[in-house]
């Protein structure tokens, strides 16, 4: 069941790509902060968020 809507999906993609771009700008172990982009991008492309499901939130108009 999809629970991530279009505006939420777009925001997750933008934030995910921004976090992923940190790989090029940060040095050393700080590059690991780019790993925060993976859950954002995964939930954006699958349109399924486990946290939303646990909280009963639906930003998608069609359930």
From TrEMBL:
Domain of life: Bacteria
Segments passing through the bilayer: 12-30, 36-55
Domain Inner membrane protein YgaP-like transmembrane: 1-61
Keywords: Membrane, Transmembrane, Transmembrane helix
InterPro entries: YgaP-like_TM
Name of the protein: Inner membrane protein YgaP-like transmembrane domain-containing protein
């Amino acid at each position: 069941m999809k629970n991530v809507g279009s505006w939420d999906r777009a925001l997750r993609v933008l934030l995910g790509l921004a976090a992923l771009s940190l790989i090029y700008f940060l040095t050393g172990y700080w590059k690991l902060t780019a790993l925060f982009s993976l859950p954002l991008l995964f939930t954006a492309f699958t349109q399924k968020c486990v946290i939303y499901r646990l909280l009963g939130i639906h930003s998608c108009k069609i359930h």
